[in-house]
Backbone:
């Protein structure tokens, strides 16, 4: 695959420290960006104009840590440091359900089940995965609790009757709810991000050893590894993704642990890396430090951008992806 070029087409949506949750919705020909942040708010933006479309402000009392949009684009789930899972109506901005039961902050949430919106699955620092039934309006208790993890659950992916759960214990557990079995892959470092391929045969993982791995789901074998001497991910949760119909892997990065504000330049700055799925080679590296910042974060925007790019999300229908930075900006990138 030949290297491709990318350019920033929209920028500076100005959340306060986008922790990493970010999702996209499609409204006709317009890409809509949903973000959560440490200010406890969830915001919906028009990517074409950068304008705020809707604010969701009455759900969480602590940082928003995860978002999952239903396939209908009518509802989404959120989770955060207040131990709650909330279900929101996209159009009205109101919460329609609220679930509680975790013993610590909820790091990950994913919608699934029949039609992709009949259940919501959550993972927490209490080392449990819990399944909540969205169809049963009379009960807010979990219908299933999975507690095989030995440490915090930080990443989830739901596909049909299967739940993938990544944990700080360095393992990815695949729960087949129909068969009642669990398969475990040991990756050797805390797992912070998971995404299955379009055909469901493999999954992409990010771990805190500065590596991404494409794993065969059936056999647990390594299909491809993605790394680079300038790519660092050892401390922060960074959400990576597959893009261009699984032809590329995209991830943000963090500055090395020994970097200082004076040395956050060039290879020591955080950026966005794009790898070829087939050969594992870096196709390009984009500099997050070129951001204009903006708003009240403008003065510190450049330095914060160079510290951590916390999430990337690729559109499923357009040649565009978003990146979120710890200074609170979200950048939309476009391909020719």
Residues:
């Amino acid at each position: 695959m030949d290297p491709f070029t990318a350019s920033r087409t929209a920028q500076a949506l100005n959340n306060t420290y986008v922790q990493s949750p970010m999702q996209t919705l499609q409204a006709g020909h317009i890409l809509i960006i949903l973000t959560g942040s440490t200010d406890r708010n969830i915001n919906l933006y028009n990517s074409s104009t950068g304008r705020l479309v809707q604010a969701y402000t009455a759900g969480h009392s602590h940082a928003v840590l995860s978002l999952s949009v239903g396939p209908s684009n009518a509802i989404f789930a959120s989770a955060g440091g207040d131990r709650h899972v909330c279900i929101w109506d996209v159009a009205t901005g109101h919460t329609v359900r609220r679930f509680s039961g975790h013993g610590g902050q909820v790091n990950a949430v994913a919608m699934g089940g029949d039609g992709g919106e009949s259940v919501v699955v959550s993972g927490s620092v209490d080392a449990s995965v819990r399944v909540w039934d969205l169809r049963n309006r009379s009960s807010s208790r979990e219908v299933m609790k999975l507690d095989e993890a030995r440490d915090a659950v930080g990443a989830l992916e739901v596909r049909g009757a299967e739940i993938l759960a990544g944990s700080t214990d360095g393992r990815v557990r695949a729960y087949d709810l129909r068969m009642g079995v669990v398969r475990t892959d040991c990756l050797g470092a805390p797992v912070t991000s998971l995404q299955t391929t379009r055909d469901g045969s493999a999954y992409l993982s990010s771990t805190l050893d500065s590596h991404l791995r494409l794993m065969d789901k059936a056999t647990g074998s390594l299909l491809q590894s993605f790394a680079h001497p300038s790519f660092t991910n050892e401390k922060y949760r960074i959400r990576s993704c597959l893009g261009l119909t699984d032809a590329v892997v995209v991830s943000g990065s963090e500055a090395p642990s020994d970097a200082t504000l004076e040395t956050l330049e060039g290879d020591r700055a955080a950026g966005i890396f794009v790898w070829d799925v087939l050969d594992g080679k870096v196709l390009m590296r984009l500099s997050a430090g070129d951001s204009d910042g903006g708003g009240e974060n403008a003065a510190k925007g450049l330095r914060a951008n160079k510290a951590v790019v916390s999430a990337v999300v690729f559109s499923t229908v357009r040649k565009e992806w978003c990146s979120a930075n710890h200074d609170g900006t979200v950048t939309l990138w476009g391909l020719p």
In short: The CA atoms of residues 164 and 174 lie 5 Å apart. The radius of gyration is 19 Å. The chain has one helix and 28 strands. The first helix runs from residue 298 to 305.
